[in-house]
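Holo model, nicotinamide-adenine-dinucleotide. Inputs:
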Amino acid sequence: MPILTNKSIVITGAAGGIGAAIATALAADGAHITVADLSQAAADKVAGEIAKAGGKAVAVAVDVRERAQVRAMIDRAVEAFGRLDVIFNNAGVAQTRPFLDITEEDWRFITDVNALGVLIGMQEAVKTFKQQGGGGKIVNTASIAGKQGYEPLAHYCASKFAVVAMTQAVARAFGKDGITANCFCPGVVATPMWDTIDKGFRDSGLTHKVNEAFDSFAAGAVLGRPSRADDLVGVARYLASSDSDFMTGQSLLVDGGMVFI
Ligand code: NAD
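Output:
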């Protein structure tokens, strides 16, 4: 029997590079996926692909900064699949800014999606897990930027350190309820997010070549190449499955060997 048969899994940012790869793979493992992203059309597309491959999915439009929308997303998963087993708080945004140019508006934009969005996602999932009688898994997407600071992504790094810290706090708070919380930390993954980061480098005059930022960051991976979104599927499957039942509060680097701690 596939490893995630009938598990109800919500994934935010599920129309993006990493989220769609995880959603599609876990659906093939038997999970029932709530595909959640900003755009209903983009979420519908991923859910449609899962259905075409014989899996089960529903699509939901959500802005993870908005508690009522996050609540409705989880309620939709419970309505469609009977319960919530796992939430992946994966939605995120990046922005390149030289350190001295980061504005309050930049800070709020990045931390609202990447940190506040994860806080709300975890809070609403924990409420549902407790109503179900305990158990449940939280998986957050952090980053190597949650382990080291990189200029000119200081505000992005702060938001990802926050994800690592909140994951530990939630793990401590709700272990007694059988709820686990872990995160994984990708390195440099070829997804649309890098278009934004690279553009930011160019606009800031920090680099002028397309993909220079991506290539120079990726050159730090000892395995000799940047990640593909598919490289994150193994850790996602592990963290969503009962194989990881005795692990909580951890942040797993899956970065091709960029950060050693
Ligand atoms: P992506 O841009 O392809 O996907 C991000 C998705 O999040 C998009 O579909 C976007 O619509 C969605 N999103 C953005 N704001 C949202 C909001 N307010 N509410 C709901 N959804 C929202 O990028 P990705 O690389 O797939 O990123 C996924 C996660 O991985 C992010 O948390 C990112 O920070 C993290 N990450 C990415 C890399 C990388 O190199 N690409 C490295 C480390 C960590």
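DSSP finds eight helices and seven strands in the chain. Residues 12-13, 15-19, 37-38, 62-65, 90-94, 113, 117, 141, 143, 186, 188-189, 191-194 surround nicotinamide-adenine-dinucleotide (CB under 6 Å).
Archived with the compound record.
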